[in-house]
Specification:
Layout (H helix, E strand, L loop, with lengths): L8 H13 L3 H7 L19 H12 L1 H10 L8 H7 L11 H12 L3 H4 E4 L5 E2 L3 E8 L5 E7 L3 H22 L1 H5 L2 H16 L1 H14 L6 E2 L12 E5 L4 E2 L8 H22 L1 E3 L7 E4 L3 E4 L5 E3 L2 H15 L3 H12 L8 H14 L10 H14 L6 H20 L5 H16 L2 H34 L15 H31 L4 E2 L2 E2 H23 L4
Parallel strand pairs: 5-10
Antiparallel strand pairs: 1-3, 2-3, 3-4, 4-6, 7-9, 8-11, 9-10, 12-13
């Protein structure tokens, strides 16, 4: 393997030593990591551990960058085996804190003032210490408010940049020598990892995220997001409200009703983020959720978030409906809408058959007992088997749902997740068919057709040019194509009628909103006539399709 910066060789030897220690000497040999000559000095650990456990232990020992990479991998069940995902969920990101004397200069540099001028009290012993940052309790001098100060560890960015350069070199090498690295786009994953990690190192991004979520939950008194103090927050330091409470993972045994209530509020908050907001906490494990007074839940650590477009959320509702109704065709169509047409060799019948087998397995299980997250993971495994790549944010959503559902069921095992999701799914389904939303979607489709109209002649011209120059050869074998011209004309006519109908509906809707005279039945007559003409065209088109048995 060729390494660009010579300065990384020392770190490469450290990586080689750790890999050898945990039994990955064959990997060292295959990749060609420098430092093999020193491996005889390393004492291997007990190799009775599973492969997945040894991977997890290796990442923990290699430090912050690799721990974070393991955490990101655990959010991608679409790319990596489930046993590895489950093991990486155990990654420990709790490390020894940086001494106060070493970290105090970083705080003062970030704020541009001495600690004494900003804080009347600053605890030297941190409340928590992780691989990227640690959190201290402090009191603001001006307002005497108690705050939590999250500060990055000194030189952490340069250390991460070094490790990222090494990981990128490894990914490039594996892409050239390992087929699976190309199939699953290992290089693309590393690029995605860099982007996520750089965002997590920018605390201003986390601050903006928390403000967005605060607005989304402004009307919910049972979900709390910590307040951010902008004047004392920069890229490497975040000052926020100190939350008094107990972490969900440390929650003692409570009575049945309280545990059920917390479970319902937790899963409802996650489902709201996914279906209603399209902006969600990507790792809602029990360590990131605090229980405040009054059984109010507070979500912490907003460094990793996921996003879903409105169309993705509509499709997700279709998918959940298909699952609950055991409709394999609807599940298949929803999945194809999400992932797009990725492979011309995809065996649609085999894919639908596998989905049908999965739904049959859950046939006798009542909907209220359905583990939605687990089912989504199994659907994802089927897609993986057919080499279908799931978009990153959808994969993050699946992992988020699995984590949130697992957290909720630890509190209350009989939680009905479908029942908690139903109000949000129903609201989204109704929103989908509102006139304004229909108008927006039709307008987008019309723009697509207009853009396609401009692109097609140019592309056809380019193809014909290649044929004239002998750069493209086309071999045709035709059979029973006597009626091809008629069929193509019919298709073209129907597409044209469909586009005209959509344009008429959009135009009529715009006219209705203007109030242009004369009026008919209290509405602009021109808009009413446009709707009527559109209806006639639409009915004609449907009748034409039915007559030709092409519905």
């Amino acid at each position: 393997m060729e390494l660009k910066p010579i300065a990384h060789l020392g770190r490469m030897r450290e990586i080689a030593s750790v890999l050898f220690k945990y039994g990955f000497d064959d990997t060292i040999e295959r990749i060609g990591i420098p430092g093999k000559e020193l491996l005889h000095r390393v004492r291997p650990v007990d190799r009775e551990m599973t492969t997945w456990e040894r991977i997890r232990r290796s990442l923990e020992e290699l430090g912050p960058t690799f721990i974070k990479m393991g955490q990101i991998v655990s959010l991608r069940p679409d790319l990596f085996p489930l046993p590895l995902i489950e093991e990486l969920e155990k990654l420990q990101d709790e490390v020894a804190p940086v001494a106060f004397l070493d970290i105090a200069p970083s705080i003062e540099e970030a704020l541009g003032q001495s600690l004494n001028r900003i804080f009347s009290q600053f605890d030297e012993i941190p409340l928590a210490a992780a691989s990227l940052a640690q959190v201290h309790r402090a009191v603001l001098r001006d307002s005497q408010e108690i705050v939590a100060v999250k500060v990055q560890r000194p030189r952490i960015r340069s250390l991460i940049e070094r490790d990222l350069a090494i990981i990128e070199s490894l990914a490039g090498y594996l892409r050239g020598h390992l087929e699976l690295a190309r199939i699953y786009d290992l290089k693309g994953f590393v690029q995605e990892f860099r982007k996520i990690l750089m965002q997590e190192l920018d605390f201003t991004y986390e601050a903006r995220t928390m403000k967005i979520v605060q607005r989304n939950f402004a009307n919910d008194s049972f979900i709390h997001i910590p307040q951010v103090y902008d004047e004392y927050s920069v890229e490497t330091l975040l000052t926020m409200e100190l939350i008094e409470g107990i972490k969900l993972k440390d929650l003692p045994e409570q009575n049945h009703d309280e545990r059920k209530l917390l479970a319902q509020r937790g899963i409802a908050a996650t489902i709201k983020q996914i279906l209603e907001d399209g902006f969600f906490h990507a790792d809602p494990h029990p360590g990131n959720i605090m229980v405040m007074q009054g059984n109010v839940l507070c979500f912490l650590d907003w460094g990793m978030v996921g996003r879903l477009t409105r169309e993705s959320r509509y499709t997700l509702v279709d998918l959940l409906q298909g699952v609950t109704e055991r409709d394999s065709s609807q599940v298949l169509q929803a999945l194809l809408d999400v992932v797009g047409d990725q492979s011309p060799d995809l065996d649609m019948r085999a894919l639908e058959k596998d989905i049908g087998f999965l739904l049959d397995y859950y046939y006798d299980i009542p909907v209220r007992k359905l583990h939605v997250g687990k089912l989504m993971l199994e659907v994802n495994s089927i897609l993986q088997h057919h080499r279908i790549m799931v978009p990153r944010d959808l994969a993050a959503m699946i992992k988020t749902l699995v984590t949130a559902e697992g957290t909720a069921r630890r509190l209350f095992a009989d939680l009905d997740v479908i029942k908690e999701a139903e109000p949000y799914a129903r609201k989204l389904a109704l929103e989908r068919w509102k006139p304004g939303e229909l108008l927006r979607r039709m307008r987008r489709q019309l723009n697509y057709f207009l853009a396609l109209q401009n692109k097609v002649p140019k592309r056809l011209g380019a193809i014909l040019g290649k044929i004239d120059r002998g750069e493209l050869q086309v071999s045709l074998q035709h059979k029973n194509l006597e009626n091809l011209q008629v069929t193509l004309e019919n298709v073209a006519n129907r597409i044209t009628v469909g586009v005209i109908t959509a344009a008429m509906i959009i135009s009529s809707s715009l006219i209705i909103t203007t109030g242009v005279r004369p009026f008919l039945f209290g509405y602009p007559a021109l808009g009413i006539l446009g709707y009527a003409f559109s209806a006639v065209l639409g009915v004609w088109l449907i009748i034409s399709i039915i007559r030709n048995k092409r519905l």
